[in-house]
Structures are given as structure tokens and as C-alpha cells.
Fold this protein.
Amino acid sequence: MTKSVDHDAYIAAAPEQFYAMLGELRAQLMPGLQLGETIIAGYAAFSKQCGLYVNPGAIAAHADEIASLKPKATRTA
């Protein structure tokens, strides 16, 4: 993931089709969620995709809670 201090510039430099999605992610994550020195989640845009990245340690720490929610994987185009 590319490090960027100016998140508005990062979003502006992303492919246009991802502006809205990145804007929504930024509004929710501001632009990443950090607890202490640990980054819990963040986002990145590439030429053909946009991704949300969650720290595997955060998933492991909450595995039982996540499993109890019975989440389903989805894919949007």
C-alpha cells in the first residue's frame, strides 16, 4: 500500500470510478483506523480496483464475535 499524507490528493489521483467509494471509506475510517501504534484498517486504490485492508491480528482478536455474526462474502462489480 502506498503511503500518502494528503488523503484528498490520494483520492483525487485515484481512478475516477473509485472517487465515491474512496470518499465513503474515508468518511468511515478517516482514512484509516489506528489504535495506538497498530493500524487496524485502511484503504487503497489501484488502476482497476479499490480495496479495504484489515489487519489480520484485528480479525484474529475478534474471530468469535465475527463468526457469531455469520457474515457472508459478497462481490460487487
The chain has one domain: 7-68. Residues 7-68 form one domain. The helical segments are 7-13, 19-29, 56-61, 63-68. The first strand starts at residue 33 and ends at 35.
